[in-house]
Amino acid sequence: MTELFVTQKDLQKNIKFNEKKIWWKNFKHSLRELIKCRTAFIGTIIVLTFILVAVVAPVIAPYDPLKASIIKRFIPPFWIEGGSTTYLFGTDEIGRDIFSRIIYGARVSLLVGLITVSISGVLGTVLGAMAGYYGGRFDSILSRIADLLLSFPDLIFAIFLMAITGPGFFNLILILCFKSWVNFFRLSRGEMISEKTKEYIEAAQALGESNSKIIFKEILPNIIHSLLVLATLRVGYFIILEASLSFLGLGIQPPTPAWGSMINSGRAFMLTSWWISTMPGIALLVLVLSINLLGEGLRDILDPRLKLE
Amino acid sequence: MENKLENNNVLLNIKNIKKYFVKSPGFFGKILAKQKNVTLKAVDGIDLQVKNREVLGLVGESGSGKTTLGKMAANLYVPTSGSITYRGEDVHKLSKNGMKKFRNNVQIVFQNPYSSLNPRKSVREIIAVALQMRGINHAIEQDNLIIDLISRVGLTKRDIVKYPHQFSGGQRQRISIARSLAMNPEFIVADEPVSALDVSIQAQIINLMEKLKEEFNLTYLFIAHDLSVINYISDRVAVMYLGKIMEIAPTDELFQFPYHPYTQALLSAIPTLGRKSVQKKKRILLKGRVPTPIDLPPGCPFQTRCFAKVGKICEEEMPPLVEVSKGHQIACHRVK
Amino acid sequence: MLKINNLCTNFFTYRGIVKAIDGLSLELNEGEVLGLVGESGCGKSVTLLSLLGLVPYPGKITGGEVWFEEENLLKKSSKEMRHFRGNKISMIFQDPMTTLNPVFRVGEQIRESLNVHKNKKISKNAEKEKVLKLIKDVGLPSPEQIYQQYPHQLSGGMQQRILIAIALSCNPKIILADEPTTALDVTVQAQILDLLRKINNDFGTAIIMVTHDLGVVAEFCHKVAVMYAGKIIETGSVEQIIFNPKHPYTQGLLKSIPRIGDKNSKIQSIPGDVPDLAALPSGCAFYPRCSKSIPDCQKDEILLKVIEKGRQVRCLLYS
């Protein structure tokens, strides 16, 4: 950074350049940390692969996931006698290609997970931050509502609500969000309360900053890390929840491919054509496990760095 | 805000200010456990004036309420009762514009350099926020002012893109001071600005604050518990104990002729660097328990440890602040 | 009685090796009060922890000897060190609120210390009597009542007295005090120092007092050692250090303290900041901030030189 500035614009550009440089340096450092932590790295790669596959599903999937064929029923996966590489993971009880259905099922799972987390995450975080900051009756009421909602087990609550609303994609999202904002609320509120003890917030008040500006521009960037970790881990949780609901016949209705309902329809054939249930089961396992690895890796990267800073 | 100063050049006038923190046990606690409200009387009736361009030192031990008083002066806490007027206007009755002007005039520097700066913001962003509050939004103008401020507090141009964690405690405190100065204030509440710093850095910051006082014509309400620092920087000193003022006097007068028993004990307790042979000064060791601001007995708060109690009146009535010589007031029943 | 030779303690951090203590040598005689003075990061607290083998991870004692009662404490195993800790050498920490266990009564905590170190069977009653006597010795009224209190029910000063009682419980030869009064009010500090002085006089216990407050040192200590960046840079009697400081750092420190009654003298600060122990320059660590430096100061390591009996300085100005 040279000392000689010809014009004001040069000074400006120089400052912006240095700020970008520092931001980029931080980003590269985080990336390096992520790579160092091998489990998290593997998790990230797998999750990204799933996302990519889900996005380009129509291009990759060898067959139409809804196309049934009476002749091609119960074909085993290619590594078993009787199978072939034309149907990689075999076919199910009405002849649909399992591999294609798994790919399309990934779409459903990821969409449900990501959308639910986005909506409930934003809602819960904002409410929690406000509750923690303002306190008083607003906080008391919201906290009691949160406690009330938390006392119900997730799955049973979802089943109950589904029975009222009926199945379907949008209903599913709505129902999942209905309860899950509470987790984000709690974390956000807790972080806000502990952050409030720090004087930089009082300094901002002394400058005359408005409360909403303080919450969103000053405090939220400081507490966002743990919320990001929570969000990542919750995606996996919602994917399993959705799979459980489709397994029970609620949630995503057939013939739309969803891993849960695939597992359910293969139940009757577990002893003879085990692959119908098992392959989507493995896909579910791998995806959620990878998400968890990614989330835990994020936690390790973000937390100690905060402390070091 | 009109350019009006009250009589005797008073900038900030605090009248009978009280701040009580009430902890309510809540609905269930009250009904089921028959718990009562717990009241913490942080500040219990204080009158204080700060004159233009002076440094008023506010000294007291922990629990004395000095930080609470300072934050009320900067309008960060709302008093339970009493009034604070700045340049003749009641601070709590200000319009939105009036409050904006107040924030321009009155700023605060905090004790803890590690938590008084937003760790996610660069130095430039931290100070830019202050400038924005003042209405300076143009980036180039901002950058110029920021560089000017940062060099006045002893840091360099390079530092404005750095983040707080890259600085030491003393440097962070300089940044805090720069942030306050960015509002172009005339009155700064310094809440123990050097207590968390090393000795050699304390001297740097004290010298800096003195220099800035001259450069910017500032008035300080300087809160500290270290009497040597207070002695060095203040023009007048007010001694607080458990929410009340015990003694106010010009600095030299207070340190040479302390009247109040608490001030005497406080001064004698300071370890000095004097000659050891001459050190046989009478050390007053206070006996008795320090009451907490929660269960204050009525009367003078110092009665439980006072070695010069007059009599029963000390336990019943709070002595008023009385002038014993020019500019020197004490709150003690010994004064007839 | 206590002789430290060339103690070295390093912290192995991700940023590099931090030489918290680099070749520290000290002597402590019976009944002496030694003040270990320095600012934050100079290594004074780590010194006390090293003596008792309590250096936390990632720190490790990497060299030197600590001779106490004809034995080298650094060579002792953890189990053997427990015989010394709390028994022959006790320690008082800075913040009594976090040092005392909040869920046990204070009487019990003092008793625990006696329990751990007893070598013959004492009856429970006798133990309790001892505890009550200790509580009385540290100047607390109504020992019976205090025995039953929990730490949070006591004030800061009283808690610190309890810590001192725990430290005294087994009649130690040395008390290591790590900034025992920093967290306390001035008036309470005076009481605690008075108590420690009484203990030093009556029981002849030697004390190493770590502090950054030169005023406390002036009033309380016999000998002083000044530390900077992990090394001792000056030692001497308290009069010599306060009134005739040799090392520029010590001189700078004394000039930067505002003194009451001396209004007209301006305080002079030492420019710059405390150095980063992970990246110490060669030569004298104080060089960048020193007003009396010469280019040679940067070259080689400067040794601690004895200029008079009991007086040492680490500075080229005196070599």
Tell me the layout of helices and strands:
The complex is a heterotrimer of chains A (309), B (336) and C (319).
Chain A: H1 8-36, H2 38-55, H3 57-60, H4 98-134, H5 136-150, H6 154-165, H7 169-195, H8 199-207, H9 211-247, H10 259-265, H11 275-308
Helix pairs in contact in A: 2-4, 2-11, 4-5, 4-7, 4-9, 4-11, 5-7, 6-7, 7-9, 9-10, 9-11, 10-11
Chain B: E1 10-23, H1 26-32, E2 38-51, E3 55-59, H2 66-73, E4 81-86, E5 89-90, H3 96-105, E6 106-109, H4 123-133, H5 139-152, H6 169-182, E7 187-191, H7 199-216, E8 219-224, H8 227-233, E9 236-241, E10 244-250, H9 251-256, H10 261-269, H11 313-316, E11 321-325, E12 328-331
Chain C: E1 2-13, E2 16-28, E3 33-37, H1 44-51, E4 59-68, E5 71-72, H2 78-84, E6 89-92, H3 96-99, H4 106-117, H5 124-137, H6 143-147, H7 156-168, E7 174-178, H8 186-203, E8 206-211, H9 214-220, E9 223-228, E10 231-237, H10 238-243, H11 248-255, E11 305-308, E12 311-313
Parallel strand pairs in C: 3-8, 3-9, 6-7, 7-8
Antiparallel strand pairs in C: 1-2, 1-4, 4-5, 9-10, 10-12, 11-12
Helix pairs in contact in C: 4-5, 4-7, 5-7, 7-8
Structure description:
The complex is a heterotrimer of chains A (309), B (336) and C (319). Chain A is built from eleven helices and no strands. Chain A has 309 residues and is mainly α. Chain A has a domain of 166 residues: MetI-like (MetI-like fold), CATH 1.10.3720.10. Chain A starts with 7 loop residues before the first helix and ends with a helix. Chain B is an alpha/beta fold and 336 residues long. Chain B has a domain of 90 residues. In chain B, strand 7, helix 7 and strand 8 form a beta-alpha-beta unit. The longest helix of chain B is centred in the middle third of the chain and has 18 residues. Chain C has 319 residues and is an alpha/beta fold. Chain C has a single domain, classed as P-loop containing nucleotide triphosphate hydrolases (Rossmann fold, 3-Layer(aba) Sandwich). Chain C is built from eleven helices and twelve strands. Chain C has an eight-stranded mixed sheet, sandwiched between helices. In chain C, strands 2-1-4-5 form a four-stranded antiparallel sheet, covered by helices on one side. In chain C, helix 4 crosses helix 5, helix 4 runs parallel beside helix 7 and helix 7 runs parallel beside helix 8. The longest helix of chain C has 18 residues. The two termini of chain C are 29 Å apart. In chain C, 46% of the residues are buried. Chains in contact: A-B, B-C.
